[in-house]
Design brief:
There is one protein chain. The protein is α/β, with parallel strands linked by helices. It has 23 helices and 22 strands. The strands form 4 sheets. Strands 2, 3, 4, 5, 6, 7 and 8 form a 7-stranded mixed sheet that branches. Strands 12-13-11-14-15-10-16 form a 7-stranded parallel sheet. Helix 14 links the parallel strand 14 and strand 15.
């Protein structure tokens, strides 16, 4: 089997299963091998009920002899099979739904291991749907680190495991494109070995070695692509003439608030670039709520005043529409008659056609949209400025394609992820960097608290009180639905619980990444309009619409998130005039979790928090929820893996300083890989 073999070539994978895999972005054998585990589970030692002590919830492995055969009762809806295990007063009830055949396996006198989640019902511990193992089978599992994958409907963890094992039977599926001298110098394992060990590690040591190699590759090829293309490309000469900078000053004077010093400094750097000798390639790093949007508007308005088109890309349909309304209001407020055009993928063919016509007829249009701005067959007549967020970061090849269409626009990337400057320089090595490290003076700082699970009832009362005052709240859960291997809160069950404890007049909404885009858009629009008062969501709200009315952010299992991500989530509130609050529920026992969360309670400065996160997150943290950020990697985490990131950057610099055009024979596979990246980047543009 080859790396690009269709997934249907794997025995047992039919068209229906292939369609389910396609929803996960898996089409080939290579794709599924790069669908890495999100965590691992090591089954606990199996012990008799009497040795467990007090059941505290969670997953247990119980070693027990079957004293009496299970009893099956046929209810009105389905069969229920029940059996008690244990001795004396220490009993554990086993319950299986729709599995009457289980009694054929469980014969009196035999010993089994029962694995499952224990809950306490009516004062008695109960294990529902336990998995049954022989002692020998369970003992072999205790010695393994078993992978747990992200799933979708129609795909089980067992199916992914079986599929990957079948593919890995083929030795040497991947070529190793990393130069051997790099592998030797940094003592990195071979690529195919790393792929096998990341899925089915022999030990924690081999897992750490595999992950280090794969993380290094992600950083190395990302940085090398940027620097190789920059070395082999020329900075484009600025073809645009920007004048009358006093126009921007006049707009600033009309604002109902003062710009911060950091905003003014950033705007000055942008104006200097746009009027300078070369086309701008600049990153704005601005903490949540620091006022990046008004900077974007002022830059686009200056372009329109000088007779040029400009475009801003938003990550979601809802946010694009919100930008559109904001820009319309600002133009009306300033008395500006600039054409404002909205273009998103969800628009009808007729709406898109009308937008294209406006672009052709409006040489100074301000265009707002999603990725459709560059994916659709849009004809710009005079595009001078493209503003994009980190999720839509233009590559060098993409800029070349735009140049071939007749223009070399200024590029401005806005990032709300507070990356320490040393790492930002590495990750955005082809860009100048501006930092907005102040927040507007009138904005009230969010009040923070870290509490344990006993505080939940008070938190619900507080949310209800805020809703009664007309405000709204977010509740964040780390999972979409219950996971057998992770005892964390999930959106599906949590919203059911809130319906029971919150007043019925409070509208509840659900939002997670597995929902279809149009459904997610509808939920966010309803929340923005206050038709939903409490939104239960995963971290998909991290990049969301501006809802000034939201005053409470409650984060469950906060100890499982990176500090920078928690700060991003907290940034969803505190955007209006009312006092806002962030309640972080700490479910961890470790002192380190409390120390990390305490940093958030003491500071609302994202850059300080990012720096502290960098100090605290050590290597080998496989079991936490991955840190999010604008630049998405499959495994790598810029905070946890900062040392590997720096090593990858140093290796890229060393190789290019010795072999600028990668002409040496040992660098030929690397050059081919970079050329392949460039071709894929252009193909993904769909232009």
């Amino acid at each position: 089997m080859k790396r690009d073999s269709a997934i249907t070539e794997v025995k047992g994978i039919g068209e229906k299963t292939a369609q389910a895999f396609a929803k996960m972005g898996v089409y080939t054998a290579g794709d599924i091998l790069l669908h890495f585990p999100r965590t691992y589970v090591q089954y606990p030692a199996a012990v008799p009920v009497g040795e467990i002590g007090q059941f505290a919830g969670g997953y247990y492995a119980v070693l027990a002899r079957v004293e009496r055969a299970p009893v099956t009762r046929n209810g009105s809806r389905f069969a229920v099979t029940v059996m008690n295990v244990g001795d004396g007063a220490r009993k554990l009830q086993m319950i299986w739904f729709r599995m009457p055949y289980i009694k054929n396996t469980l014969k009196p006198g035999q010993v089994f291991v029962f694995y499952g989640k224990v809950t306490v019902k009516e004062g008695r511990p109960v294990m529902e749907q336990p998995v049954v193992y022989t002692q020998e089978a369970y003992r072999s599992m205790e010695e393994q680190l078993l992978p747990v994958y992200s799933l979708t409907a129609g795909i089980t963890n067992n199916l992914i495991t079986k599929t990957i094992r079948a593919i890995l039977d083929d030795e040497g599926l991947f070529g190793d494109e990393l130069p051997q001298e790099v592998r030797r110098r940094l003592q990195l394992c071979e690529y195919n070995y790393a792929i096998k060990q990341i899925h089915f590690p022999d030990s924690m040591e081999t897992l750490i070695a595999a992950r280090k190699r794969l993380v290094f590759d992600e950083f190395f090829f990302f940085i090398m692509q940027i620097r190789y293309q920059r070395k082999n490309g020329q900075r484009e000469t600025n073809p645009f003439a920007f004048g009358e900078p006093e126009f921007v000053e006049n707009l600033i004077a009309k604002l109902p608030y003062e710009l911060t010093g950091a905003q003014r400094r950033t705007l000055a750097e942008i104006q200097e670039n746009m009027a300078g000798e070369y086309v701008m390639q600049r990153l704005i790093q601005g903490d949540v709520g620091s006022g990046k949007t008004v900077i974007a508007f002022l830059a686009m308005a200056w372009a329109a005043h000088n007779g040029y088109q400009s475009a801003i890309m938003a990550p979601t349909e809802v946010l694009a529409r919100q930008h559109y309304e904001t820009f319309q209001n600002l133009c009306e407020q300033f008395g500006l008659n600039f054409p404002i055009v909205l273009l998103t993928a969800a628009m009808t063919a007729k709406q898109k056609r009308m937008a294209y016509e406006r672009l052709e007829l409006s040489p100074n249009a301000m265009v707002i949209g999603t990725h459709a701005l560059i994916q659709e067959r849009v004809v710009y007549t005079n595009l001078a400025l493209v503003i994009t967020d980190e999720q839509h970061r233009f590559g060098v090849r993409q800029r070349e394609l735009l140049a071939k269409k007749g223009f070399c626009p200024h590029i401005l990337v806005m990032s709300a992820t507070p990356i320490p400057r040393t790492l930002a320089i590495i990750l955005y090595g082809d860009m100048d960097i501006s930092v907005i490290d102040e927040v507007p003076a009138k904005r009230l700082p969010v009040k923070n608290c870290v509490v344990d699970t006993k505080y939940r009832p008070k938190a619900y009362e507080f949310i209800a009180a805020q809703a009664a005052e007309g405000h709204q709240a977010y509740v964040i859960c780390p999972l979409v639905e219950e996971s057998e291997n992770m005892d964390l809160e999930n959106v599906t069950d949590y919203v059911k619980h809130l319906r029971e404890v919150l007043p019925p007049e409070i509208g509840l909404g659900v939002l997670h990444g597995k929902m279809k885009n149009e459904l997610k858009t509808g939920v966010m629009e309803a929340f923005a309009k206050n038709e939903i008062q409490v939104l239960v969501a995963t971290t998909v709200v991290e990049v969301g619409v501006n809802v000034p009315n939201a005053t409470v952010m409650m984060i469950e299992n906060a100890d499982r998130f990176g500090l920078a991500q928690l700060h991003q989530l907290r940034g969803r509130v505190g955007r209006g005039d009312a006092q806002s609050y962030c309640i972080m529920i700490n479910t961890g026992d470790a002192d380190t979790a409390k120390k990390r969360l305490d940093i958030l309670t003491k500071s609302n400065d994202g850059f300080f928090i990012a720096g502290e996160d960098l100090k605290l997150r050590g290597p080998g943290d496989f079991f936490g929820i991955r840190q999010s950020g604008g630049i998405q990697f499959r495994l790598a985490d810029i905070y946890q893996d900062a040392a590997v990131l720096k090593a990858a950057s140093e290796e890229c610099m060393r190789i290019l300083s010795e072999d600028e055009n990668l002409e040496r024979p040992e660098h030929e596979p690397l050059r081919r890989r970079l050329e392949q990246f460039a071709e894929e980047e252009l193909a993904n543009m769909n232009l």
